[in-house]
Specification:
Layout: H1 9-18, H2 20-40, E1 45-52, H3 55-58, H4 74-84, H5 87-97, H6 102-108, E2 109-113, E3 119-125, H7 128-186, H8 191-239, H9 244-325, E4 332-339, H10 348-386, H11 389-396, H12 399-410
Antiparallel strand pairs: 1-3, 1-4, 2-3
Helix pairs in contact: 1-10, 2-10, 5-7, 7-9, 8-9
């Protein structure tokens, strides 16, 4: 009987050794087929371009000469990749490329983001020039789209600034007209000069009031002195120390001087009161003029405030206009579109190697299968022989007889 047993590693190695010629033939044929197929298919060339969007553009600060412009964040770069991967971007490139359809452009382009947040464009085509132009068109599309978005934002900002500027200029003109009308209505040619004149008049009146106060005190002292002398003279006359003739003359002189002093005092009092009244009137004029000056200062403050806004808005408008003129620098190109020297597909040596490896695997499977079939065929034959009469007779004989039987069958 033929015994059934499990295959061991030695059995597999023995089978491969027995069928080694089949394995070698399959490996060689697979390698040759891969080499031939890689040689006859149309090769594809890959072009690459690398660029990034600087942070100063993202932050709307505007590019400046001589400043290091670093890339933005990776999240922003991924957003830009989504823009490049859009169907609109591929359609725009296909329309300009003309020699390739939209479907071909969709299959030919890939995009990636580097750890430094720059963008890489990969384009493949059987024509190296087409691949290079395709990569260039993607970069130009992004530049145009991004610049367009920035341009729209800047134009909106400039329009807003211009509207605000026009409004403040109108407010300034209205305040200036209102100020002129108020000055004409109040008949104030030069309010500041008028105030200075009133202040000078008030100071003059204050000095004159002080002077009359001094004069008034002097008059009061003179009157008191004359009254004292007059009383002394009256007392001397009554006591008989002074003769009647002398006393009458001196008394008359004192009375005359006292009357004159009293008249002078009354005149000084009237003049002092008039000066005080005039000062009060001047102060009323100053108070009224102060109110009008306050109104004028309000007009001046409004005019100055609008003027400051106008200056600031004009500066902002200049900066925005400069940014609009520098929109060509919204991206920084690190690597201009360039095509590979050798095709990226197919790689003949790699395809041949892969084909040989696949052939080796296929040859091993095929060799093991053939060897297994051969063994099964041999087993069936042995089983059939076991059922023959001569084989049974041979098995029933002694060893020496079996040897003689084998010799007779061989003969």
């Amino acid at each position: 009987m033929v015994e059934q047993h499990l295959y061991t590693s030695e059995d597999y190695w023995a089978a491969l050794y027995r069928q080694r010629l089949i394995v070698i033939i399959v490996v060689v044929l697979s390698a040759l087929f891969s080499y031939y197929f890689s040689s006859v298919i149309t090769p594809l060339y890959e072009a690459t371009a690398q660029f990034y969007v600087p942070q100063d553009v993202i932050a709307s600060q505007g590019p400046e000469e001589g400043r290091i412009r670093i890339p933005g964040l990776q999240d922003q770069a991924r957003t830009y990749v989504a823009l490049l991967e859009s169907r609109d971007a591929h359609k725009a490139v296909a329309d300009q490329l003309e020699v390739r359809s939209l479907g071909e452009v969709l299959r030919a382009a890939d995009f990636d983001v580097t750890p430094s947040a720059s963008l890489i464009v990969y384009t493949r085509d059987k024509d190296p020039a087409v691949a290079t132009r395709m990569a260039k068109l993607f970069v130009e599309y992004f530049q145009s789209f991004h610049s367009g978005v920035m341009r729209n934002d800047l134009n909106k900002s400039i329009d807003s600034v211009n509207k605000s500027l026009a409004q403040h200029e109108q407010n300034k003109r209205e305040s200036e007209y209102a100020r002129w009308d108020y000055l004409r209505e109040q008949k104030l040619g030069s309010p500041t000069k008028a105030m200075a004149e009133l202040e000078a008049q008030r100071a003059s009146y204050e000095d004159r009031i002080k002077s009359t106060a001094v004069e008034l005190r002097a008059d009061e002292e003179r009157i008191k002195s004359l009254q004292s002398k007059l009383e002394s003279e009256t007392a001397a006359f009554q006591s008989g120390r002074v003769s009647s003739g002398v006393s009458d003359g001196l008394y008359a002189n004192l009375r005359s001087d006292l009357t004159a002093a009293q008249v002078a005092r009354d005149t000084t009092v009237e003049r002092h009161g008039a000066l005080i009244e005039s000062k009060r009137e001047i102060e009323e004029l100053i108070t009224d003029l102060t109110f009008r000056l306050q109104k004028i200062r309000e007009f001046d403050e409004e005019i100055t405030r609008n003027q400051n806004f106008i200056v600031a808005l004009r500066a902002i408008g200049v900066n925005l206009t400069n940014e609009l003129l520098r929109l060509k620098d919204t991206i920084m190109v690190l690597e201009k579109p360039s095509v590979s020297t050798y095709p990226v597909f197919p790689i003949i040596w790699l395809n041949t190697l892969v084909g040989a490896a696949g052939g080796l695997l296929l040859g091993i499977i095929y060799a093991l299968l053939i060897d297994h079939l051969q063994i099964r065929t041999l087993a069936r034959k042995l089983k059939k022989i076991e059922g023959e009469d001569w084989f049974k007779e041979l098995l029933s004989q002694d060893p020496s007889g079996r040897s003689e039987g084998r010799d007779r069958r061989r003969a």
